[in-house]
Amino acid sequence: MTTASLPAPAPRRAPGFFEALAPGGRRMLFLLAMVAVCLLFAFPVLWLGLTSLRPGYAVFYVHRGTDFTLENFHEVLGQPVVLKAMWNSFVISTLATILSLGVTVTSGYMLSRFRGPIPNTWFSLIYVFRCVPYVSWVLPLYFVTRALGIFDTYWGLLLPHVAVHVCFFSWIMKGFFDGIDPSMEYAAMIDGCSRWGAFWRVAMPAAIPGLTALAILCWLYTWNEFLFALILTAHETPILTVVMAQFVHELGMEWHLMSATAVLSLGPALLVTVFGQKYVIRGLKV
Amino acid sequence: MAEVVLEKLCKSYGSVAAVRDVDLRIADREFVVLVGPSGCGKSTTLRMIAGLEEITSGTISIGGRVVNDLPPKDRDIAMVFQNYALYQHMTVYDNLAFGLRNRRLPEAEIKDQIARAARILSIEPLLERRPRQLSGGQQQRVALGRCIVRNPSVFLFDEPLSNLDAQLRAQMRLEIKELRERVPTTAVFVTHDQVEAMTLGDRIVVMKDGYVQQVGTPLELYRRPVNRFVASFIGSPAMNFVEMRVEAAGDGFRLSGDGIGFDVPARAFPRLGPLAGRSAVLGIRPQHVRLGSPSAEGQAPIRGRLMVTEQLGDEQLLAIRIAGADFRIAGVDPELVFPAGAAIEAAVAHENMHFFDPEGGAALR
């Protein structure tokens, strides 16, 4: 073998600004930026965790003192309203996820696969609703739920949440179905399925990763939602995010209890995120 | 086994007509290829036969039964798609079994059918794998298997080889041909590749702009194209066209163009008569041109300047400039060396000339 055909070595590139400044400087800068961003997001959570472990008198000096206690959690869990709110939040998040997925999946599928006046109208409706600022829905919804007699009930909070999910997530679901080759469904129809059967037995299983991502996003959204919960519920149906805020009252602010409740509410959300992270990232990429 | 009959088949999307008045009778066990450029309506026609596309007007019957309003599952057809369309969440075995299970066949019988199809297509080792673990060729073989196990009346192929590389495509073409011998079934095959059409079809249907241009055996289409479009679409490299003026001269015609001119006898081309004093388009296949001066009666000379040569190993292709257009000559000895811009003289026999109406493009015979 001759060496004649070997390519000539590439000419050495002149060192860039960072390399000239310090060898490995680029990598170091990148690392520092990463740490800064992580701290930016992690710091409030760490502070919250720390505050929840401090006794009431010490919350303003979190950085000083060594008194740590689990008493805050004990006290918070001793309040029936907190337990009830946790249960309500869990039930409403779960029901809202199930109900809205039922609608979102079929709605996303329709937007992806069908053309004609009905999908077009539906698409326009969703678009219009998405254009309206979320906050401006709250007051009309308050009047509507009162008029329907579902104010401060599960339904009174569930239905608005489902509506929001359907509007926001139909597009994401459409994106998922757009990524699934429709000829698979045609093949199923030729293989003996009806149109519905092709959707249910072929398109749906292929959309499971998207569906999982959406389920997690739906659940977290409702679990963390504050505004609707604040306006559309009262004493009958306490919701965790609202109960948490009620540690601010006329006698002062119970930061330690509020932090403990917040940490408790972080738990399920964290679990869901950790287990579903893979799908959430895939879902957000669409 | 069944005959497929299309009568006055039309399909429009709003005001756009995709398929217009297609009449076609496909005999039992016949292999018909629909061929044409993109947007010619061939896939739409196939999808209408499959029931995946609604018919605007006309009728489709399969095995003597009008199927216009039947859903795809009740038409007793099987289809192979361009991108295989295998069910990604199932194993190959389950993919093959899907259609049979829908028909509620006993599991033992399903197993036998799959074993038979797997043997025919040599996919036995793949049965437990998932589609994404297979190569393109293997996936296409599984897609064929999914059709075979169903034992349908009609096979429909929607550009099944387009996603494969050239080598694999040639191999799969042979396999489909072999499959035809082993499982003789009526088949409709859609492709935009004229080589696939020529090699696979008992008959070929050439389509353009929603209309059927010509239906015939591969040789009929090659030898007697009905118009300029079919002539240019079938055959590779494509037919050469030169616009020429027709003049009556003695007992024949004098044909002359920019830098080209010769006489042809009237008895060979009776339909040139009405064109005397006007122009006609001369069509000559590159394979029918021979280098050198006309050596016998019944040959016409062609002269032009060499533009480029393309070496293929077993032959070379020349492109010479005649009347402002490239004129290709195939089958030239690969050892010959031509200087750039050389004057080339070639000959073509009268019986290998095609004439087309310069306006409509219809063949003049």
Note down, in words, how this protein is organized.
The complex is a heterodimer of chains A (286) and B (365). Chain A has 286 residues and is mainly α. Chain A has two domains: 17-52; 74-284, MetI-like fold (Orthogonal Bundle). Helix content of chain A is 72%, strand content 1%. Chain A has 13 helices and two strands; from the N terminus they run H-H-H-H-H-H-H-H-H-H-H-H-E-E-H. Chain A starts with 16 loop residues before the first helix and ends with a helix. The model of chain A has no long low-confidence stretch (mean pLDDT 86). With 365 residues, chain B is α+β, with helices and mostly antiparallel strands. Chain B folds into two domains: 4-232, Rossmann fold (3-Layer(aba) Sandwich), CATH 3.40.50.300; 240-356, Nucleic acid-binding proteins (OB fold (Dihydrolipoamide Acetyltransferase, E2P), Beta Barrel), CATH 2.40.50.140. In chain B, strands 6-7-8-3-9-10 form a six-stranded mixed beta sheet, with helices on both faces. A six-stranded antiparallel beta sheet of chain B has the order 13-12-11-14-20-21. Chain A binds chain B through residues 181, 183-184, 186-195, 202, 205-206, 208, and chain B through 50-52, 71-73, 75, 77-79, 81-83, 85-89, 98-99, 102-103, 146, 150.
Instruction: Name the CATH superfamily assignment of the largest domain in chain B.
Output: P-loop containing nucleotide triphosphate hydrolases
Main sheet overview of chain B: 6 strands, mixed
> What pair of chains forms the biggest interface?
A-B, 17 and 24 residues
Q: Judging from the principal axes of the Cα atoms, what is the shape of chain B?
A: elongated
Overall tally of domains of chain B: 2
Helix and strand content put the structural class of chain B at alpha+beta
CATH superfamily of the largest domain in chain A: MetI-like
Report the radius of gyration of chain B as a whole number of Å.
25 Å
**CATH architecture label name of the largest domain in chain A:** Orthogonal Bundle
Tally of domains of chain A: 2
- The mean pLDDT of chain B is 91
At the first level of CATH, the class of the largest domain in chain B is Alpha Beta
Helix count from the secondary structure assignment of chain A: 13
**Approximately what portion of the residues of chain A adopt beta-strand conformation?**
under 5%
State the distance separating the first and last CA atoms of chain A: 51 Å
Helix and strand content put the structural class of chain A at mainly alpha
Placed side by side, the strands forming the largest sheet of chain A appear as 1-2
What is the overall shape of chain A? flat
Low-confidence stretches of chain B: none
Major sheet strand order of chain B: 6-7-8-3-9-10
Query: What oligomerization state is this entry in?
Result: heterodimer
